[in-house]
Recover the amino acids of this structure.
């Protein structure tokens, strides 16, 4: 495992290490898989939301008026369908007022390239800090395609949150969108000939939704 990538946050946490083991186990049933994914997603969301701009406000406590803070930006969490849906709730626990967008893509089984079939994102995306989420960063095709689409709609501040990433996918984002930071729980070894992450955990969407 390597951490020599720039603009990448590799989250190191005992709970993450334990739950990644649960997720990698091919015998983990979907309910347990979703539970472990949810726990890791909360930790990833915490790190993904660091450094957001704040504004100072006054708040009345039961004792006196004191200084407090509110986020000084709008937040949008955009899920790459369908597996990205498994990460959205974790972000919403931190930012209930966040707007949610969806980008539909699937991977062509022959070419391994992403194919777009659906998009619905919040209005005025240029005013938002955007957190793009997808459990797996494999070839990077879906991620870079999604980032390009979001930028074409005006998005300027984009972060990518994923569960497991391959070096190939990280390099692809860094080459095409060096301004986009990546927050991940694991950087695995490589991609195999079928463009699956090794050792990975298989198809995240199938395992989340029990469609194996």
């Amino acid at each position: 495992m390597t951490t020599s990538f720039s603009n990448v946050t590799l989250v190191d946490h005992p709970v993450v290490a334990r739950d990644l083991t649960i997720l990698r186990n091919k015998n983990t049933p979907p309910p347990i898989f979703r539970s472990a994914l949810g726990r890791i997603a909360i930790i990833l969301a915490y790190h993904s939301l660091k450094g957001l701009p704040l504004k100072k406000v006054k708040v009345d406590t039961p004792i006196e008026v004191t200084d407090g803070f509110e986020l000084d930006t709008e937040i949008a969490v955009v899920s790459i369908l369908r597996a990205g849906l498994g990460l959205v709730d974790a972000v919403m626990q931190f930012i209930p007022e966040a707007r949610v967008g969806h980008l539909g893509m699937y991977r062509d089984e022959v070419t391994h390239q992403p194919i777009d079939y659906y998009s619905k994102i919040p209005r005025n995306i240029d005013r938002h800090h955007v957190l793009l989420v997808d459990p797996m960063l494999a070839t990077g095709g879906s991620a870079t395609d999604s980032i390009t689409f979001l930028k074409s709609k005006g998005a300027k501040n984009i972060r990518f949150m994923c569960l497991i990433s391959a070096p190939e996918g990280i390099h692809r984002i860094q080459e095409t969108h060096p301004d986009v930071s990546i927050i991940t729980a694991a950087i695995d070894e490589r991609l195999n000939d079928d463009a699956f992450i090794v050792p990975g955990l298989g198809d995240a969407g199938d395992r989340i939704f029990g469609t194996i």
Notes: The chain has six helices and twelve strands. Residues 8-209 form a domain with the Rossmann fold fold (CATH 3.40.50.2020).
